[in-house]
Amino acid sequence: MTAPEAPAQAAMPQPDLATASPPARADGTGWNLVQRILRRQDRGRTPVEVGRLRLALVFGAFTVVFVAIAGQLVNVSLLGGGVEARQLVARKPAPPERGEILDRNGQLLAATLPTTSVYADPRKVLDAEDTARRLHQVFPDVPLATLVERLASERTFVYVRRNISPQQMQRVNSLGLPGVYFQEETRRLYPQGPVVSQVLGFSDVDNQGLGGVERQFNDRLRTGETIQLSLDLRVQHMLRQELITAMTRFSAIGAAGVVLDARTAEVLAMVSLPDFDPNDPGRAPDDARFNRATLGVYEMGSTFKIFNTAMGLEAGVTSMSGGYDASAPIRIGRFEINDDHAKNRWMSTPEIFKYSSNIGSAKMALDVGAAGQRQFLERLRLLQPSRLEVPEVGRPQFPKAWRPINVMTIAFGHGISVSPMMLAAATAPVVNGGFWREPTLLRRELEEVPAGEPIMSPRTSADMRRLMRLVVVEGTGRNANVDGYVTGGKTGTAEKIGAGGYQKNKRISSFVGAFPLHDPKYVVFVMLDEPKGIRETFGFATAGWVAAPTFARVVSRIGPLLGVPPVDETTPEIRQIMAVTETPRPGGQRVSQR
Question: In terms of CATH, what superfamily is 115-187?
Answer without folding.
Answer: Penicillin-binding protein 2a (Domain 2) (3.90.1310.10)
